[in-house]
């Protein structure tokens, strides 16, 4: 490790870094703007100046930009040198000449990197007295607000939006003192990663529009570390509350999962927590006054439990604690996953693969570092957005790494590397049913039916491991493509294969496994990543329960069934016909859920459940990482409780020896762990509820939290006792332990002098590295080196049928989420329902764009307008999945078109 | 124990003399002091008929100011609330809509602004923190109320009247 001397003190630092990174990693305060740990340096802002000396004798030194200078052994620099500090404060003064100085009205105030740096450099008084340059702001859509006057021209936004995230519609215009960062003209930002601009921009140019609706300063929020609920990746987020409302979501750095970035669905899709549509009161239907209190509810529940056959329907979006509490209540044999048989089958396959230990499943960080990626079937842009962002980094960075291996240019030297790399890209093969925005960075693409994609996968596996069977009747095109892909995978050191469940096809999963396992035999560490459908799909699947169809069968066997449905809108999870069949064979239906939906309408007893923000819970993401999401706020309405609390209370009605002790979530996890060995270690995913630092808890509120004695004065003038959280080491106060918290319990990032999110530097071992104390979460599936069992079962080639179509779901990043569409800005970007056919199929059936087509799925007829899809293979019908109000269809089945209205 | 200052006065613990024991001289002395005060200038005033002048730095009840055009100055930045040592101020911000420029001076304004006068210690930090000259402490006392709720001052209690408007 090289030694450098900072202000005559010797420090050991990591080679290959720049001086800014070295200083920040050592915990020194050095201001900067344009450098970003995920994007490297360009030396644009001149804010990070330090003085570098030739040798010990040199007293003059020279000013350099620390972000553009490599660490060298023996290098001497000064951060505190008079010229350097003056230089930095002059740079800020100059950047501030046109700055509006409107912190009081600026949404960034209190978490503004520009404020922090201004204070840090000591530029206190403004000398510029002339007219300031002003700009016209743009409308950038419902999610991101634009206020160009605050810009300091650091170029971070365009570097993030274009270079990092691959967006096209944000750019820099004009020159000199008039550079403008925005779109060519007003309009919605096209990239689904645009929300990160809010955190990337060091000033208040880009701010969160949803926060603006109920604006609260960062210091006034009650925060907690949570886990995103909108897809299976489990990105880490910080959610903030005030006045009983969830106010915003920001990124919670986790180097192995989401790093610095979220997708817009995750960042903005939180409004469902504040929705008018929340279930707020226990209801017992079909009686005079339906709203009941807890005692009446419990009385009623005890009559529903005794003498009835219990059936529990679990949920892929409820926490493990809640699912387990339901299983504990109804008994393991009566607990079913609320998802169709086909999906359970595929997910079981995935669980078997992961738990077998035969392969390695990569984290998102590892996908970023992969040097060849094969996507088999999964439309990750829509089903796992941040994974698509990671794949993009792999493609861009592989090329950069290859190039910089030959010339002596460090990877952080962003512009130089880009200049060298030009258009070179790493290898990505995007093999999916329809076109995807990832195609433009793919070396190889293919549009085919899932079975054909699986056959391509098996063909690749055969080339990699000739002892595997050859794909019968493979076309030449498939052979060449398989050849090319297998060559690229073979050349790579860390190839990654990605597949998932959204094609409803198990052959894809098997094919992907065969490829990964075949690659592993050649001494590589290949990664096999799966994308699931919901935030806890894998956790539920790991409980290995039967499908919804089995639940119907068992409900039909008995005449006296009480079904308890946990946080699951069955009309979205299974075809409507099946849901109806189930409801009609149950005598009593008890539903616990957060929002009113079609399933809660069928409930005889409806119990209000807490959302993720009001509950503690553990979720298992797609890489089998169990992560704890902490309660952000206690609902003011005491009828809204975590499902596991309700279920444990209901369970205590059954046992005569109920001791009234409420189980803490960590105790439920311990019980889960002791019952199911596959969850071994899960109780370590967060410190237990009684964890303390010398008796102190970790406060959810900042030390600047204001208004404590006034906030609730409208309810009670004498201020109430702070809420007591018995389930976690976090407290609902400003007091407590202010030092570094264990990483799963960091409620917000803040450090003295660093009020913005950039303070995360102080929580990392090195800038852009892992959090001190390790990343949150426990991985439940690790490669153990057992010999893989290859599948060898190759499906027949897909053949389009006469007048019948294979029905497949199309997921939409904006629109397919059950919860995220409660955010108006997301709902407004959701497509309207449609039925999609290939051009050729539409022509053959004599259909035109916009014709109303009626399709029967699972006994129900649906009429939707036709949308002709250019890249769709023939023989497939694509229907958007999970749009608001739409039923779930029999995905993977065959349908025909019954009537057409022109 | 060593004394911290040299100002401590030892208590006289000698037994009382006969003169002291009969008390009469002490009573006469006390009456003398009382009589002297009857003819001296009074220290108190007859409040509320008679009021004393305020000192120039007196800090009384708050007001929320308007600018010369009658627009609310407060932009709900939250700085007074964060400065308040008694945590007595709370507010909720809202965005000014087109057409409301005559009501609010800045793009943002306080949709709700409350001070808990029972908690306030009239330190004036809020006034000092305000970047928009919006909150001022005036020369008024907080009046008495029959209910504690009356001490929660909202915007309608705090805002100065519009020019020409009677409060
Ligand atoms: S960008 Fe920062 S410094 Fe500029 S007005 Fe906003 S809060 Fe103040
Ligand atoms: S808009 Fe923000 S990120 Fe972009 S150049 Fe200006 S200050 Fe930097
Ligand atoms: S990628 Fe998935 S988990 Fe991550 S922020 Fe988006 S929806 Fe949430
Ligand atoms: S005068 Fe002091 S205590 Fe009273 S509201 Fe203002 S800052 Fe708070
Ligand atoms: S951070 Fe070094 S020049 Fe901008």
TrEMBL record, chain A:
Q: What class of enzyme is it?
A: translocase
- Cofactors required: [2Fe-2S] cluster; [4Fe-4S] cluster
For this chain, one GO molecular function annotation is: 4 iron, 4 sulfur cluster binding
| CC annotations in GO | membrane
Q: Which UniProt keywords apply?
A: 2Fe-2S, 4Fe-4S, Iron, Iron-sulfur, Metal-binding, NAD, Oxidoreductase, Quinone, Translocase, Ubiquinone
Superkingdom in the source lineage:
Bacteria
Q: What is its EC number?
A: 7.1.1.-
UniProt domain 4Fe-4S Mo/W bis-MGD-type: residue ranges: 221-277
Q: Which residues form the 2Fe-2S ferredoxin-type domain?
A: 1-83
Reactions catalysed according to its record: a quinone + NADH + 5 H(+)(in) = a quinol + NAD(+) + 4 H(+)(out)
4Fe-4S His(Cys)3-ligated-type domain: residues covered: 83-122
- Relay the cofactor remark from the entry: Binds 1 [2Fe-2S] cluster per subunit.
What InterPro entries does this protein map onto? 2Fe-2S_ferredoxin-like_sf (IPR036010), 2Fe-2S_ferredoxin-type (IPR001041), Asp_de-COase-like_dom_sf (IPR009010), Mopterin_OxRdtase (IPR006656), Mopterin_OxRdtase_4Fe-4S_dom (IPR006963), NADH_UbQ_OxRdtase_75kDa_su_CS (IPR000283), NADH_UbQ_OxRdtase_ferredoxin (IPR054351), NADH_UbQ_OxRdtase_Gsu (IPR010228)
Supply one GO BP term.
ATP synthesis coupled electron transport
Instruction: Please give the subunit comment from the record.
Output: Composed of 13 different subunits. Subunits NuoCD, E, F, and G constitute the peripheral sector of the complex.
Function, in words:
NDH-1 shuttles electrons from NADH, via FMN and iron-sulfur (Fe-S) centers, to quinones in the respiratory chain. Couples the redox reaction to proton translocation (for every two electrons transferred, four hydrogen ions are translocated across the cytoplasmic membrane), and thus conserves the redox energy in a proton gradient.
Which family would the database say this protein is a member of? Answer: Belongs to the complex I 75 kDa subunit family.
Query: What name does this protein carry?
Result: NADH-quinone oxidoreductase
**Which species does the entry assign this protein to?**
Chitinophaga tropicalis
Q: Upper taxonomic classification of the species?
A: Bacteria, Pseudomonadati, Bacteroidota, Chitinophagia, Chitinophagales
From TrEMBL, chain B:
Catalysed reaction(s) here are: a quinone + NADH + 5 H(+)(in) = a quinol + NAD(+) + 4 H(+)(out)
Gene3D superfamilies, sorted: 3.30.70.3270
For the 4Fe-4S ferredoxin-type domain, which residue ranges apply?
62-94, 111-140
Q: Which SUPFAM superfamilies match?
A: 4Fe-4S ferredoxins
> What EC number is given for this enzyme?
7.1.1.-
**By its UniProt entry, which Pfam families does this protein fall under?**
Fer4_7
Q: Which GO terms describe its molecular function?
A: 4 iron, 4 sulfur cluster binding; iron ion binding; NADH dehydrogenase (quinone) (non-electrogenic) activity; quinone binding
Q: Keyword Cell inner membrane on this protein?
A: no
Quote the subcellular location field of this record.
Cell membrane
- Give the enzyme's main class according to its UniProt record, as a single word: translocase
**GO CC: one term?**
plasma membrane
Q: What does this protein do?
A: NDH-1 shuttles electrons from NADH, via FMN and iron-sulfur (Fe-S) centers, to quinones in the respiratory chain. The immediate electron acceptor for the enzyme in this species is believed to be ubiquinone. Couples the redox reaction to proton translocation (for every two electrons transferred, four hydrogen ions are translocated across the cytoplasmic membrane), and thus conserves the redox energy in a proton gradient.
**Subunit:** NDH-1 is composed of 14 different subunits. Subunits NuoA, H, J, K, L, M, N constitute the membrane sector of the complex.
User: Which NCBIfam families would you find in this protein's record?
Assistant: NuoI, PRK05888.1-4
The name of this protein is NADH-quinone oxidoreductase subunit I
């Amino acid at each position: 490790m090289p030694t450098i001397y900072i202000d005559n003190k010797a420090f050991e630092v990591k080679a290959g870094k720049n001086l800014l990174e070295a200083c920040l990693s050592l915990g020194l305060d050095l201001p900067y703007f344009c450098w970003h740990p995920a994007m490297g340096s360009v030396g644009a802002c001149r804010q990070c100046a330090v003085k570098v000396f030739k040798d010990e004798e040199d007293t003059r030194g020279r000013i350099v930009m620390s972000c553009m200078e490599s660490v060298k052994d023996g290098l001497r620099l000064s951060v505190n040198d008079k010229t350097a500090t003056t230089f930095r404060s002059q740079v800020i003064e100059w950047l501030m000449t046109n700055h509006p100085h409107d912190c009081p009205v600026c949404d960034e105030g209190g978490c503004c990197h520009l404020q922090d740096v201004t204070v840090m450099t000591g530029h206190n008084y403004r000398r510029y007295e002339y007219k300031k340059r002003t700009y016209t702001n743009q409308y950038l859509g419902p999610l991101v607000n634009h206020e160009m006057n605050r810009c300091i021209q650091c170029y971070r936004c365009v570097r993030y939006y274009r270079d990092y995230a691959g967006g096209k519609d944000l750019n820099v215009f004009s020159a000199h003192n008039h550079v403008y960062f925005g779109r060519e003209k007003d309009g919605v930002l096209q990239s689904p990663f645009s929300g990160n601009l809010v955190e990337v921009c060091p000033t208040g140019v880009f701010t969160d529009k949803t926060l603006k609706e109920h604006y609260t300063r960062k210091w006034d929020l009650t925060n907690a570390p949570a886990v995103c609920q909108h897809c299976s990746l489990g990105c880490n987020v910080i959610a903030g509350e005030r006045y009983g409302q969830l106010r915003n979501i920001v990124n919670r750095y986790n180097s192995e999962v989401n790093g610095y970035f979220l997708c817009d669905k995750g960042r903005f899709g939180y409004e469902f927590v504040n929705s008018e549509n929340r279930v707020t009161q226990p209801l017992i239907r079909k009686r005079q006054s339906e709203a009941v209190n807890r005692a009446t509810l419990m009385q009623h529940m005890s009559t529903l439990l005794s003498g009835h056959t219990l059936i529990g329907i679990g949920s892929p979006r409820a926490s493990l604690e809640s699912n387990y509490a339901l299983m504990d209540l109804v008994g393991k044999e009566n607990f079913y996953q609320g998802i169709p048989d086909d999906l359970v089958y595929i997910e079981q396959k995935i669980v078997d693969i992961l738990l077998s230990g035969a392969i390695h499943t990569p984290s998102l960080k590892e996908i970023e570092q992969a040097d060849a990626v094969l996507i088999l079937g999964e439309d990750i842009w829509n089903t796992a957005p941040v994974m698509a962002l990671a794949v993009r980094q792999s493609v861009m960075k592989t090329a950069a790494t290859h190039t910089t291996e030959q010339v002596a240019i460090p990877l952080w030297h962003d512009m130089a590397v880009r200049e060298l790399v030009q258009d070179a890209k790493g290898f990505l093969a995007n093999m999916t049913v329809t076109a995807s925005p990832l195609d433009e960075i793919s070396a190889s693409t293919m549009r085919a039916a899932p079975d054909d994609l699986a056959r391509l996968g098996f063909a690749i596996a055969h080339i990699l491991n000739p002892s595997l069977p050859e794909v019968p009747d493979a076309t030449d095109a498939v052979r060449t493509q398989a050849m090319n892909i297998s060559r690229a995978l073979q050349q790579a050191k860390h190839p990654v294969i990605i597949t998932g469940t959204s094609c409803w096809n198990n052959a894809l999963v098997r094919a992907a496994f065969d490829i990964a396992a075949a690659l592993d035999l050649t001494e590589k560490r290949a990664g096999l990543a799966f994308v699931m459908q919901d935030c806890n799909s894998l956790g539920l699947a790991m409980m290995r329960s039967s499908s919804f169809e089995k639940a119907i069968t068992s409900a039909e066997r008995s005449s006296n069934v009480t079904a308890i449905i946990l946080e699951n809108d069955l009309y979205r999870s299974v075809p409507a016909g099946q849901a109806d069949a189930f409801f009609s064979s149950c005598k009593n239906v008890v539903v616990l859920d957060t929002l009113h939906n079609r399933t809660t309408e069928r409930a005889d007893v409806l119990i209000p459940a807490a959302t993720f923000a009001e509950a503690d819970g553990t979720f298992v993401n797609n890489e089998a990482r169990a992560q704890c999401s902490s309660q952000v706020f206690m609902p003011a309405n005491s009828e809204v409780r975590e499902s596991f609390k309700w279920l444990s209370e209901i369970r205590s009605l059954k046992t005569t020896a109920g001791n009234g002790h409420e189980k803490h979530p960590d105790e439920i996890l311990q019980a889960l762990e002791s019952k199911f060995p596959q969850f071994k270690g899960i109780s370590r995913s967060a410190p237990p509820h009684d964890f303390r630092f010398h008796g102190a808890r970790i406060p959810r509120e900042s030390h600047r939290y204001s208004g404590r004695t006034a906030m609730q004065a409208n309810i009670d003038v004498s201020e109430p006792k702070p809420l007591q959280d018995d389930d976690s080491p976090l407290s609902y106060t400003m007091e407590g332990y202010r030092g570094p918290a264990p990483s799963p319990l960091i409620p917000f990032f803040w450090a003295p002098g660093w009020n913005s999110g950039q303070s995360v530097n102080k929580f990392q071992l090195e800038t852009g590295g892992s959090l001190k104390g390790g990343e949150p979460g426990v991985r439940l599936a690790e490669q153990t080196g057992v010999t893989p069992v290859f599948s060898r079962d190759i499906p027949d080639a897909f053949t389009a049928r006469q007048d019948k179509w294979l029905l497949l779901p199309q997921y939409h990043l904006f629109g397919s989420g059950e919860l995220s569409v409660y955010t108006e800005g997301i709902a407004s970007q959701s497509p309207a329902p449609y039925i999609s056919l290939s051009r050729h199929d539409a022509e053959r059936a004599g259909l035109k764009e916009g014709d109303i087509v009626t399709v029967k799925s699972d006994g129900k007829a649906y009429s939707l307008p036709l949308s002709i899809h250019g890249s769709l293979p023939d023989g497939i019908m694509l229907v958007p999945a999970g749009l608001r109000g739409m039923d779930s269809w029999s995905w993977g089945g065959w349908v025909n078109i019954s009537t057409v209205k022109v | 124990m060593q004394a911290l200052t040299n100002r401590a006065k030892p208590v006289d613990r000698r037994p009382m003399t006969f003169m002291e024991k009969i008390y009469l001289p002490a009573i006469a002395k006390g009456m003398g002091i009382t009589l002297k005060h009857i003819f001296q200038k009074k220290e108190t005033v007859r409040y509320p008929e008679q009021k004393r002048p305020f000192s120039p730095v007196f800090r009384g009840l708050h007001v929320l100011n308007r600018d010369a055009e009658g627009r609310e100055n407060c932009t709900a930045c939250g700085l007074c609330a964060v400065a308040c040592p008694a945590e007595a101020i709370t507010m909720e911000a809202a965005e000014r809509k087109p057409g409301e420029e005559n009501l609010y001076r800045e793009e943002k304004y306080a949709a709700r602004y409350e001070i808990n006068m029972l908690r306030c210690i009239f330190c004036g930090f809020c006034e000092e923190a305000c970047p928009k000259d919006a909150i001022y402490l005036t020369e008024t006392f907080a009046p008495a109320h029959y209910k504690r709720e009356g001490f929660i001052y909202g915007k309608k209690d705090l805002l100065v009247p519009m020019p020409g408007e009677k409060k």
